[in-house]
Amino acid sequence: MTGVPTNDSYLSVGEGVEIAATIERCSRIYVAGRARLQTSCRSFVLDAKGRVDGSIECETAEIRGHFEGEIRATQRLVVHDTGQIEGEIRYGRIEVADGARLNGRIENLGAASSVTQPGGLSATDPTKARAAGALP
């Protein structure tokens, strides 16, 4: 895959749309439909009605729908209460809302990173976060 672009290009996959693609040189990606994707981007947003299977590398990601595959958010990963991730999850910082579901291998990319739940709960590794109720 090509590196993250310096422009402000944008791709939106609307509700009811289904695509399968390798996307290059796109800065921001929003998915409300179904997609099989392989991409690197700055910002990735998966709507509550969206479903993505694939491999995403980004700086920031917000997951409200169902994601299956590999996701690597080098700066910040936010999993909302309707969000579900299955597979390989790598993050710089992560915020997991009550009701969100994570299943698979979870890896912190940096020692300074933490798992944060609304209300300020944080832990430096997934085991502590799970014990504190931030992860299922």
Could you provide a short overview of the structure?
The protein has 136 residues and is mainly beta. 4% of the residues lie in helices and 60% in strands. The longest helix is centred in the last third of the chain and has 6 residues, at 126-131.
- The portion of residues assigned to helices is under 10%
Number of strand segments: 10
Query: What does the average pLDDT come to?
Result: 85
Number of domains: 1
Residue stretches low in confidence (pLDDT < 50, at least 5 long) are 112-126, 130-134
The largest sheet, given as strand count, sense and whether it forms a barrel, is: 10 strands, mixed
Taking Cα atoms only, what radius of gyration do you get, to the nearest Å? 14 Å
Residue fraction in strands:
over 45%
Distance between the termini: 32 Å
Q: List the helices and strands in order.
A: EEEEEEEEEEH
| Structural classification | mainly beta
Question: How does the SSE layout of this entry go?
Answer:
Blueprint: E1 10-13, E2 18-23, E3 28-31, E4 34-46, E5 51-63, E6 66-79, E7 84-96, E8 101-108, E9 115-117, E10 121-123, H1 126-131
Parallel strand pairs: 1-3, 2-4, 3-4, 4-5, 5-6, 6-7, 7-8, 7-9
Antiparallel strand pairs: 9-10
Please tell me about this protein's structure:
- By secondary structure, the chain is mainly β.
- It has one domain (10-131).
- Helices cover 4% and strands 60% of the residues.
- It has 1 helix and 10 strands, in the order E-E-E-E-E-E-E-E-E-E-H.
- It has one helix spanning 126-131, and strands at residues 10-13, 18-23, 28-31, 34-46, 51-63, 66-79, 84-96, 101-108, 115-117, 121-123.
- Strands 1, 2, 3, 4, 5, 6, 7, 8, 9 and 10 form a 10-stranded mixed β-sheet that branches.
- Strand 9 and strand 10 form a beta hairpin.
- It starts with 9 loop residues before the first strand and ends in a 5-residue tail after the last helix.
